[in-house]
Design goal:
single chain; mainly alpha; two-stranded antiparallel sheet; 16 helices
Length: about 400
């Protein structure tokens, strides 16, 4: 079931030069900050608006994977004209006028701003205490997710933790070291995990859970070199009820969303004009039969060659196509879009397989780490490995991680 984001557009009233009492009045015909943020329902709408930002072009719909995944040795972009701006990221030839970079900055800070509004106001609202705690946890997690991507992409960035009241105040924000931002995220995610639910039912399926907060927290511990805290955090996630899906192919497609392996997904819904995703057509190309865009985000030969013989993930992840590149395209659910850039597939942010391999990384080479790695290998139809297998421990771990685990 899709968690439906309901975005409330809050308009500020234009001020008319008249008496003070008149200019303090808020229009009764539309929602605005003067009459909003008053009830628990208002705060739910405000939190849903944070989730909605995740779907922006500047976030998971395009900028995040272009600025990060596309720069790896996994895929490359074949395109000219309007697509040339994307190609430069693959070539590490950034341009200062890039809309993709600008969109990432603007959309991420929009999400952060929306989270700050909730966190600055929610304690003043007369509402159910349990709902208040959950919504606070969701806002902390979502703000941390935006900050994580921004810090990975840019390093030192402004760290804004309260609602910005004016343009002038916003212009006064200065950069903070990445290390300072990570420490803030550790504190925020620790609090978020304590306030969030382990799972949801009905229309709330898709909201951030304890597992989502803990997974992002563990990633940050690993980034900062704190393997001990990463290990203890990841072990908590093992108790939250996740498991590997038996068949790797059953991870993908709209019919498999929010499966037992899924920890957090960004919700998209095609057919509504602005709620669908564009990455499905950009990844699938000619495989999305109602979309005629052709192959664009193309698997590198290094990625194709990384699969071992008999790996069940190969046919579930790649399909042969006739083109002048590597001869393969990436499968992403193979769901036909309603139109170009309007597909319903969710973006899967965290899965349980990530947790198993991160825990192996935190533990370092040893029997328990290989047991974790071999759980992923067994699901892929591959035999077990150990310390005597060819390659370093890091190489064995990366080989799994780089091919869509």
């Amino acid at each position: 079931m899709k968690f439906k984001y309901i975005l409330s557009f809050i308009a500020l009233a234009g001020l008319v030069s008249c008496s003070d009492s008149f200019t303090d009045l808020a229009p009764t015909s539309q929602r605005n900050v003067g009459v909003f943020y008053k009830t628990g329902s208002d705060m739910e709408v405000a939190v849903n608006a944070i989730y909605n930002t995740l779907k922006a072009d500047g976030c998971y719909d395009q900028s995040y994977w272009v600025m990060q995944e596309l720069r790896s040795d996994n895929t490359f972009w074949d395109g000219t004209g309007l697509a040339e701006e994307i190609t430069v990221f693959d070539k590490f030839t950034d341009i200062s006028t890039s809309n993709i970079t600008e969109d990432a900055w603007a959309s991420s800070y929009l999400g952060i701003s929306r989270a700050n509004i909730v966190l600055s106001r929610i304690d003043e609202i007369d509402m159910d205490a349990g709902l208040r705690e959950r919504l606070r946890g969701e806002a902390l997690f979502l703000r941390s997710l935006f900050y994580y991507h921004m810090t990975v992409a840019f390093g030192n960035i402004p760290l804004v933790l309260t609602e910005t009241a004016s343009v002038e105040e916003g212009q006064d924000h200065t950069q903070a070291p990445a290390s300072t931002i990570y420490q803030q995220l550790i504190a925020d995610l620790t609090e978020a995990e304590s306030k969030l639910s382990s799972s949801y039912t009905g229309i709330d399926v898709g909201r951030a859970t304890k597992g989502a907060a803990a997974t992002l927290l563990a990633k940050i511990y690993l980034v900062t070199g704190d393997n001990g805290n990463a290990e203890s955090t990841l072990r908590r996630i093992l108790t939250y009820g996740y498991a590997l899906v038996d068949d790797y192919a059953d991870l993908w497609g709209t019919e498999n969303e929010h499966n037992v392996e899924s920890i957090f997904e960004v919700e998209f819904e095609g057919g509504f004009g602005d709620q669908g995703n564009q990455f499905t057509s950009q990844f699938n190309g000619v495989l999305a039969t109602s979309v005629t865009a052709g192959v664009r985000n193309i698997p590198e030969r290094d990625l194709i060659d990384a699969y071992e013989a008999g790996d069940l993930r190969f046919d579930a992840s790649l399909a042969e196509v006739t083109d002048d590149n590597t001869g393969y395209t990436i499968k992403y659910g193979l769901t036909n879009a309603f139109s170009e850039d309007d597909a319903p597939n969710n973006w899967v942010v965290f899965r349980y397989a990530d947790v198993l391999l991160m825990l192996a990384e935190a533990l370092g080479e040893g029997n328990e780490a290989y047991d974790l790695i071999n759980q992923v290998r067994t699901r892929a139809g591959l035999g077990p490995i150990d310390s005597n297998s060819p390659g370093s421990f890091t190489e064995k771990l990366l080989q799994l991680s780089l091919i869509h685990i």
